[in-house]
Design a protein that fits this description.
Order of helices and strands: HHHHHEEEEEEEEEEEEE
Radius of gyration: 51 Å
Structural class: alpha+beta
Mean pLDDT: 77
Number of helices: 5
Shape: elongated
Largest sheet: 8 strands, antiparallel
Helix content: 25-40%
Length: 267
Amino acid sequence: MSEEIDYAEMLEIPVATVNVVKKKRRRFRDLKAQAVGKVNERMESRAHARDKTYAGNEAAEEPDIVPETQAAGDAPPPEGSVTETALSPYEEPRRRTHPVLIVEFALACALCLTIFLTNVFMPESAINTFIRGVLSPDTDAAASRTYADFTLSGVVSEFADVELTVSSAGVLSFTGECSVYPACDGTVESVTQNGDTYTAVVAHSDTFESVYTGLSTVYYAAGDAVLSKVPFAYTDGANAVQVTFYQDGEMLNCYSVDAENCLSWNE
C-alpha cells in the first residue's frame, strides 16, 4: 500500500478537494420586517418632502405681518418672540351664530306664543279665523251645492244586460240581476228594509239626494261614504229597482239615460 502512495507522489497526480458550504435560508419574518421598513422609509421621505414644499409656498405667498402696536420706523421684534397668533392650516375656525338668525328665531317663537295665547283667550279673533279658513276645507260651500253642481254617472254598469227607462215624472226603473252604483259621490243617509227588499237614501249635499228602492242587498250602512265608481248595492232581478232624485224635497225629472246606461242632466 505504501508503495502505491509513493508511486502516486512520484507521478505527481493532483488530488482535488471540495469544500461544501451550506447557506442558511432567510426566515420569512426577516423578509417581512425588511419590506415593512422599506415602505415606512419611503412614506416618511415623501411626507418630509411635502412638508418642505408646503412651507416654502407659504413663505413665498404670505407677506410679512407687522403688528399694529409697532409704529413706523420701530425696530422689528427679536427672533423667537410671538407677535401674532395664527391659525394652523389644519385648524378650522370656530363657527359663530349670526345675529340675524338669533333674531329670526326669537320672532318665530314670539309669533307662535301669540297665536297660542289668542287661540286660548280669543278664539274668535281675526288671526284664528284666518288660520281656520286656511287649514280647514270649505265645508259650507260643498254642503250647499245643488244638483246642477254634480255630474251624473250610470247606476248600473255599462256591460249590465238590463234596460233602463225614465218616466215623465223622473222615475228611473230597471229589472235584472246586476250591481247598483250611486249616481254621484255621497254619504248613505239611511237604509230600511221593506219585506225582501231594501231602500237606501244617499245624500250628495244638504239639498240634493237620491233614493233607491227594490234592492236585494245594500253593502253600506248609514253614515258610510260611497263613490259613483264603486257599487254599493245589489239586485237579484226578482224585483224592479227604482231610482229618484230630489232637490230640496222636490223630485227631479230633468235627466235622461243614453244607450250606455249613463245618466246626464238635460240642457
